[in-house]
Amino acid sequence: MHSLTDPAVCHAEVAETDIAHDSDPQVRQAFRRALRLMERGIAVLIRGETGTGKEILARALHAHSQRRAAQMVALNCASIPETLIESELFGYSRGAFSGALPGGKKGKVQQADGGTLFLDEIGDMPYEQQTRLLRVIAEREVTPLGAERSVPVNFALVCATHQDLSARVADGSFREDLFYRIATGVVELPPLRERADRGELLCNMVAHELPGCDPRQVISAEVWSLLLTHAWPGNLRQMRAVIRYACAVMEGTRITRADLPVDFIAQLPVANAPVRVVVPNVTPIRPSRAGDERADVLEVLQTCRWNMSAAARELGICRPSLYRVLRRLDIPPLKEQLALDACRRA
């Protein structure tokens, strides 16, 4: 049995991955919810920080869906030059432009016909191509560059982003109508620092790199403590890189501090020295406003555009704790506020 974050899965195509039994309850819930949405024909938008496993979840969804007999086609919208993304996504016909292949080329949308189209980092898609993608989603047909006729397509759509698309809609860099098309089925992957199964993840990664060993015997007590308490800004991707490096360079039978990457050591707080956390461009909470905690929390929420993950980080708590604070201070979530406002206007 593999979990979503098992390195054996991360380095290979997902086939029948047992993600429904992942060690983290938040990941299990995200998978189950996303799969139900996908089976109802609803576009899935996976949100999460860089390195949290968004593409792995997307591949697992396809592998467990009714479309698994067809292929899943992925496109990272941030890695394709703006001049090429149109032909990559929508394809082109013969003679569409100078240098085009003689027989034309099927784009990612056509390649995903019958299967799943995964658009990673969709927040980085050029504005002009957002318009064409919206039409493809709405009409379920695509017109390759230079073609005279449209081609019908049938695919499940899964998108992913680490950005706040609501903020991008507000600043005009992301189409509002496309946002509402792809954000009907949002699921969130938790950052590694909020996961309670970090120890199990570490054991799985070491066991993959050093088969047959006892991971808890391989990792020294000092390193075990460092790995469990680290903030992991790069999330699972960073943890996997650190473990692979340490397992490769270790000279004895145990991973010691000397086996850890230099850049990882540089991120660790200096012993017996005060740790200064710098958060740029964020208005700090003013602790002098005694008895006005509700106003302080509302100020942070508004500064973060009601992005719960960002607000929780600014307040120095996890998302579940933030929701408990909102209930205690009688601050309804943004969706409930909008619903109440709509009822009052009606």
SSE layout and pairing:
Layout: H1 7-10, H2 25-39, E1 44-47, H3 54-64, E2 72-76, H4 85-90, E3 91-92, E4 105-106, H5 108-111, E5 116-120, H6 127-139, E6 141-142, E7 151-152, E8 156-161, H7 165-170, H8 176-182, E9 185-188, H9 198-209, H10 215-218, H11 221-229, H12 235-249, H13 262-267, H14 293-303, H15 308-315, H16 319-328, H17 334-345
Parallel strand pairs: 1-8, 1-9, 2-5, 5-8
Antiparallel strand pairs: 3-4, 6-7
Helix pairs in contact: 2-3, 9-12, 14-15
Protein structure class:
alpha/beta
Given as residue ranges, the uncertain stretches (5+ residues, pLDDT < 50) are: 1-17, 272-291
* Number of domains as seen in the coordinates: 3
Provide the gyration radius in Å: 23 Å
CATH superfamily of the largest domain: P-loop containing nucleotide triphosphate hydrolases
The CATH class of the largest domain is identified as: Alpha Beta
Distance between the termini: 52 Å
Structural write-up:
- The protein is of the alpha/beta class.
- The protein has three domains: 184 residues, Rossmann fold; 75 residues, Helicase, Ruva Protein, domain 3 (Orthogonal Bundle), CATH 1.10.8.60; 53 residues.
- It is 44% helix and 9% strand.
- The chain is built from 17 helices and nine strands.
- It has a five-stranded parallel beta sheet. Strands 3-4 form a two-stranded antiparallel sheet. Strands 6-7 form a two-stranded antiparallel ribbon.
- A hairpin with an 8-residue loop joins β6 and β7.
- α2 crosses α3, α9 packs across α12 and α14 packs across α15.
- It starts with 6 loop residues before the first helix and ends with a helix.
